Amino acid sequence: MNDFEAGRPVVLRGGTVLPMDERQGEGRRMLPRTDVLVIGDRIAAVGPGLAAPPDAVEIDASGGIVMPGMIDTHRHMWQTALRGYGADWTLTQYFVWFYLEHGKLFRPEDVHAGNTLAAIEALDAGVTTVVDWSHGLQTVDHADAAADALQSVPGRYVLAYGNLQQAPAEWTAAPEFRDFVRRRVTGDDLLGFQLAFDVLGDPAFPEKPAFEAARELGAAVTTHAGVWGATGDDGIKLMYEHGFMTPGTIYVHAASLSADSYHRIAATGGSISVSTESEQSAGQGYPPTWSIRAHGIPVSLSMDTSVWWSGDLFSAMRATLGADRSREHLEAHAKGDTVTHCGLRADQVVEWATRGGARALGRDDLGSLEPGKKADLVLIKNDLSPVSFPLLNPFGHVAFQAQRGDVHTVLVNGRVVKHEHRLLGIDLAAARREVEGTVEYLRSEMGEEAWEQGMNPDIPATKLLDNPYTYTDYRSDSTHRL
Ligand SMILES: [Zn+2]
C-alpha cells in the first residue's frame, strides 16, 4: 500500500520549524516542537499539537528541522550528464569546451539525460524549485526534451530557455521557438518559463529584440551579468537605458560590477543569483554578497552547474557564509582593523536559499511555511548521524552542519517525493542508463584524447620562491628525494 497516495493529508509532528515568514527579520525565528499540516497542495496549519484529519499520514519530525523547500535560481541542468568532469576548470576552459568545441555535440536525448538526473538530484537534496538555465537548446527538439525531462520528475522547475549556439535575437524570433512557447508554456504551476541570455555590451545592443520578445511573451529574463571578461557594466547600462531592467529580472553572479550597476539593479527591483562556489573557482569575480549587502539588493542562491559542483544548496549556503566572512576579515585587516562581529549570519543564508529564491521568481506562495502557501517543504533529520545532535542553533545547523544525506522527507506541491531518505516513484536506474548513454556517446564523438585532455587541463608552471633561510638537517635529508 502506498502511504503517500496523492491527495492524502500529511502532518509532520514535533519538529523544529523554521517558518521563514515575514517575521524572520525580527530575529532568528524558530518554532520548537511544532507540527505542520499539509492538505492538498497547501500548508493548512503550523502550530503545536495540531488536529489532523483522520486519514492524514503522520511523519515523526521530532529531533529534526522542518523548513521550506530550497530554491536554486540558476542551474544548467543539461550539464549534469558530465558531473564532475570540469572540477579543475576555469571559466575560460568552460567556454572553450561548451561554447566553441563540444556543446553542439549534445543531442536532444543528452539534454533529456542531464535534465532528468539534475531534477532527481535536486529533490534528493531538498531543492524543491530549480531554474533550469537551459542554454543548450540548439533546436526546439532539444527544448522539448528538456521540458519532457522536467515534467517527468515531481519537482517544481522553471525552464529558462536559452541557446548558446545562436544570437538571442535570432532564436527568440524563430517561428519554431514561438510554436514551442504556444505548445509548452501552458501555465503549469510546476513548470515556469523564462528567457535566458547574456548581454555582451556591444553598443549596438543586438540583444534588444530578445528583450522585446520576453516582454511580448510576459517572460522574465535571467542573464549572466558581472562575469569578468564576458559581461559587465556596459550590458547593465544598455539594459537600463532601454528600459529592460525590470523587477523580475535575475542577474546571475553580478560579481564584477561597479557600484553604479548595483545602484541600477537596486533601483529597478531586480535580484541577484549568487553562485558562490562558481565565482570562487571559475573566476567571474569575488562572490558578491559582501558588496551587494550594502546596496540592499535581494539575493537568491544557486549552484550553476554540476560539471564542477554538487547540486545542493547546503554547499551554497556554507560557501556563501565563508566567502562573505573571509572578505569581511580581509577588508578589515587591510585597514589594520579586527572584525569582532560577523555581518552575515546563518539565518540570512537560509533565508536566501528559501524565501530569497521565491522572491526572485515572483512567487509569494513559495519559500515560507505559512498557512495557505504551497506545500514545498523539507524535513532534515538523520537519527543515525552523530551530526544530528545537539540541535542548539537550527540555522547554524542547516548552514554549516547538514548535508543532503540528512534530508529525510521532501514534499513538493503537497506530494511526498522523498521519505525516510528514499526518493519515491523515481526510476534512478533509468536515469543512470540515459546518462551512461550520453557519456559513452560524447566520449566516442570527441575521441579518447580530447576527452581526457578536456578533463585534465594543463597546470601552469609554479616557481618556488627563493628562501633566505638555511635548510635544517631534516629538510636537507628530504631534499635529495625531490
Ligand atoms: Zn551559469
Share of helix, binned = 25-40%
Uncertain runs: none
Mean pLDDT: 95
Bound molecules: zinc ion
Total number of β-strand segments?
17
Shape field: globular
InterPro entries: Amidohydro-rel, MTA/SAH_deaminase
Pfam family, one: Amidohydro_1
Keywords: Hydrolase
Protein name: Amidohydrolase family protein
In a nutshell, what does this entry contain?
This protein has helices at residues 91-102, 108-124, 140-151, 168-171, 175-184, 208-217, 233-241, 259-268, 276-282, 289-292, 313-334, 346-353, 355-360, 394-401, 428-446, 448-455, 473-479, and strands spanning 10-17, 31-39, 42-47, 57-60, 65-68, 70-75, 127-134, 156-161, 191-196, 220-225, 250-253, 271-274, 299-301, 377-380, 407-412, 415-419, 422-423. The protein is an alpha/beta fold and 482 residues long.
Structure in words:
This protein is an alpha/beta fold. It contains 17 helices and 17 strands. It has helices at residues 91-102, 108-124, 140-151, 168-171, 175-184, 208-217, 233-241, 259-268, 276-282, 289-292, 313-334, 346-353, 355-360, 394-401, 428-446, 448-455, 473-479, and strands at 10-17, 31-39, 42-47, 57-60, 65-68, 70-75, 127-134, 156-161, 191-196, 220-225, 250-253, 271-274, 299-301, 377-380, 407-412, 415-419, 422-423. Strands 1, 2, 3, 4, 5, 14, 15, 16 and 17 form a nine-stranded mixed beta sheet that branches. A hairpin with a 2-residue loop joins strand 2 and strand 3 (42-47). Helix 15 packs across helix 16 (448-455). The protein is globular and about 60 Å long. The model has no long low-confidence stretch (mean pLDDT 95). The protein binds zinc ion.
